[in-house]
Design goal:
The protein has 106 residues and is mainly alpha-helical. It is 54% helix and 0% strand. Among the domains are: 32 residues; 39 residues. The chain has three helices and no strands.
Length: 106
């Protein structure tokens, strides 16, 4: 009886080997999973809108502010730049918080 000599199995054979494809697929799957995990860690959290406090002024105070704003001269810095910016910021704060804009005639 002749001794049976088997061919040694190569660990990194050619693509025709039966050992190559399961190892290749495993490496690809592990690489994809690790890549997705690393990409998931790198994404920042979504921005959160912070609702600022909007002071609700009484009608008499609103009327007084309106009268004083109308009494300012036409070229006044307060009338030209500060009041429109203040009104815009209050409107944006109300929009973020979901509040309706208060009107002076209400």
């Amino acid at each position: 009886m002749k001794p049976r000599i088997s061919k040694p199995i190569e660990r990194y054979g050619d693509p025709g080997d039966s050992f190559f494809w399961p190892r290749f697929v495993t490496i690809v799957i592990v690489s994809v999973v690790l890549g997705l995990m690393l990409a998931g860690c790198a994404t920042p959290p979504p921005p959160v809108a912070v609702c600022p406090v909007v002071a609700q002024l009484p009608q008499q105070t609103q009327a007084r502010i309106a009268d004083e704003a109308e009494a300012l001269p036409s070229g006044a810095y307060l009338r030209e730049l500060v009041l429109p910016d203040w009104i815009r910021m209050r409107d944006e704060a109300r929009a973020i918080c979901g509040l309706e804009r208060m009107r002076a005639d209400e």
